[in-house]
Structure formats: structure tokens, C-alpha cells
Amino acid sequence: MPVGAIFNAGVEGFNRAQQDVEQATANINRATIERQDQQQTQQGRQLQGANADEAVTAPVSQAPRVDEELVNLKVAEFNAKANTESIRTADEVLGTIIDIRA
């Protein structure tokens, strides 16, 4: 496999890992905000003396789970590190090839 292809694969993999980090952090933020909103709604109902038997509407979309998103964040970190090592290795190999030819 050519050194350039390895370098490009490493860069593409690193970019995917960066996107995964951004997605996981966005989901963690969304889950945190939704949890705070739910707590405020429950506190408001308690203050208003809402009946415990009242029907509560389900959220439109399932809130992301923070624990799953933290795992996704860690996986993305490992992917980024692995792809960084691929880039570093391709760089070293290319440097060695240049030194041999010079």
C-alpha cells in the first residue's frame, strides 16, 4: 500500500473521529438540557399541586442516554489516537524513503 494512501486513510479516519466527537458532545448537551427541562416541569407541577394520576405526554423523540454518549466519546478518542499513529507512521516512512534516496 502506498505511503500516500496510508496517510490519506489516517486523515479520513481522524476526520470521522472528530465528527463522532462532535455528535457525541451534541447529544450529551441535548440530554442534559432535556433532563433539566423535565426537572423544572416536575417542580412546577409539584408547586401547582398537580395530581399524580395525570397523564404525562411522552417526548417526541427519545432523549440520548448520557452513559452511551460518553462511551461513544471514548471510542472516538481511541479512533482519533489510532489514526494519528497511522499518520505519524506514514510520515516516518516517507521521511525514511526520502533519506534513502538522498
UniProtKB/TrEMBL annotation:
Q: Which organism is it from?
A: Pseudoalteromonas ruthenica
What lineage does UniProt assign to this protein's organism?
Bacteria, Pseudomonadati, Pseudomonadota, Gammaproteobacteria, Alteromonadales
Top-rank taxon, per record: Bacteria
Annotated spans, Disordered:
34-63
Its recorded name reads Flagellar basal-body/hook protein C-terminal domain-containing protein
* Bias kind Low complexity: ranges: 38-48
